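To fix ideas, we now present one chain and its tokenised fold:
***
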Amino acid sequence: MSGADPLPDLRPRRRLLWPLVAGAGALAGAALLAQCQPEASPRVAPAASQTEAASDQQARARIGPRQGRRAAGPPSRFSPEARRRRGQVFAAAQQERGFTRLGEPTFAEWLWLVPEPGQTLDEYLAGAINRKTPARHRLYLQPFADLTRLQRELLPVLRDHLAAFFGTETVVLPERALPRILVDQARRQVDAGLLVRGLTGEVSADGLGVTGILGTDVYEREGTRTASTFGLSLIRERAALTSLYRTGTDREKALRRALKLVTHETGHVLGLEHCIFYRCLMNGVRSLAEVDPQPLHLCPVCLAKIQAALGFAPRARYERLAAFYRRHGLAGEAAFALQRAAEAR
């Protein structure tokens, strides 16, 4: 298939760990979607707004006006809780060089439609962390037999990337048949919710989690509605699912998209919620128009989370990633990883 997203008017949902949603809506469809989402209140708690304004002034001095600038004009699309958390994170930020703060969501973007509250490092640490231990130390990939030849060729690359990215042994399991009962023949899509729930029983005792990978398009149910998705994750059950249907047939584009989608969903397995602070691999996305410019790295907040859960050395991790990206011709990602390795403590 081409890299274009063929299904219009796709509405994201806010349950099951904010799954990635595919499909760019037509203008009328996007407007209807916007009406279905609660708009953030224009009233901001004084303490939260003052904290974020002060932190933005500091950021402009440190990282320049383009990264530190807030959108002016209409009320913020960020929810009050999101503004409070952003204020806390930016006020305490110390190592921002090389990272870009998220600005105000623009029309029809994920955060414009889904006003997520975000997750700070403290909130992550206060939860039930999926922590790496001697007894639980592997990640698993579960491919399904509907993968195309190109998608199947990418499996060892995806495995090596997860191993370098999370500093954790990653195992590709034998292929499984895709249950025909889960395929909606009229839509030619798989019910992602049922399929990912079927994976929950496949998490072994030594597994941090399992991520299913299939080639068929997927959708999820939201009450009486359905929405096409890139993937779906169940954090408590440590199971995730990613469809490579929309990654396309161009190998370079398919590789980048697959790396982002599979690594993002595996991040959810490790307890990461969508990032609302910086441009980050854990940002929520709803179409390929958001996937393609998305970075393949974690922001300082999300990196600190997985470091706490997995216990890796940041410099060694970035060096591993730089070597991986060089092997696969991802020059920009390799340069970024080398820069971060040189600055890591």
Notes: The beta strands are 138-143, 169-172, 183-184, 189-191, 207-214, 218-222, 225-229, 231-234, 239-243. Residues 313-345 form one domain.
